[in-house]
Amino acid sequence: MTVVAVLLGQESRSQGWPELDARAYALVALSHLPVALRGRRPLAVFAAVQTALIAYVTLGYWPVVCTFGSMLALYTVASVRPVRTALVCAACMAGVWVYAGVVSDTPSMASVLGQALLYCSVLVWFGHLARRSAELTRRLRAEQAERARRAVAEERGRIARELHDVVAHHMSVISVQAGLARFVFDSRPDRARGALGTIADTSGEALEELRRMLQVLREEDPEAPERAPMPTLARLGELADRVRAGGLPVDLAVTGTARPLPPGVELCAYRVVQEALTNALKHASPAHARVELRYGAHELTVRITDDGQGADPARVPAGGGHGLIGMRERAKLYGGTITVGPRSEGGYEVRLTLPTSAAERGGTGAAEAER
User: Fold this and answer.
1) Distance (Å, whole) CA 263 – CA 66
2) 97-132 per-position pLDDT tens digit
3) Contact, 252 vs 238, CB < 8 A?
4) How many other C-beta atoms can be found within 10 angstroms of the C-beta atom of residue 128?
5) How big is the chain by its Cα radius of gyration, in Å?
6) Which terminus of the chain has a smaller tally of CB atoms within 10 A, N or C?
7) Geometric angle at alpha carbon 314, from 155 and 205, rounded to 5°
8) Among 200, 202, 193, which Cα is nearest to 169's?
9) CA distances (Å), origin 290, targets 64, 123, 240, 307, 350
């Protein structure tokens, strides 16, 4: 802007104004160079360039030469300061323009006043729009950061539920087998050895699942070993074997045509069965449990029952307990329903129904959640 102003000043004589001298060029520089600091001190820069412009106009030079810096300074003030401050600065700039018209004996003061009002209004308006845009951008970034924070919190909650399922089940089996081994250690060494073998296998699998879950919290490493696959319904047989080894007989029945389901649906069903059998092992023994899978055309129904001695209300508190909360949240996530409660003939029943297609689970939202 300073270079353009200097080049324009060289045309002063042809426009009927005095030729610029060293003093005029110094004022031209003072009217433009300070705008380089407008981002740090917008009001101070505006005051400086206006002061230089007033001195330039008072000496009788061509006013147009020194208008660029003051216009940019006014726009900057409007873009970073409240509207009231911008309007005060605009009034000052308009006053300087009118003063220039008076000093130079301009024949058309109406034109000078119109230009002053037009340019100042446009500069303040566009500066105000820039300020609003910057505020909206900051607000959007804050909202994005908040959504990211909530997503991290939800993911950690999901991992916590996964860890609860893993630890609760495996530790229940280990606890039961450890008690059995201690009880029969002298009288039935073979039975004690079998219990210790079950403890070793169960603890190893629990550690493997814990490593996989905790690895989710770490940054991705391209050289890290491949993670173990997520549990699926095909591993229900292994789960039933562990529970049987823990002292709870379990029957597994499948009706309908078994078929691969979306990974999230299979994981949800597996975890619900795991939690239900863990509760039965801890609270219903001695009892007999049964797991039934029914593959429908558009849904999967899972029913877990036990014939324990009645239902203890403290066993699964209404509205409480991480296991029950986790089962309900899993079912809700995939558009399913779950009921948990005592049976009239004794024992407890958990019934889970899950849609097997993304459309029935609630469209793209559920499908994205599953992925």
Assistant:
1) 70
2) 888 888 877 778 888 888 889 999 999 999 999 999
3) no
4) 18
5) 39
6) C
7) 45
8) 202
9) 93, 77, 10, 9, 11
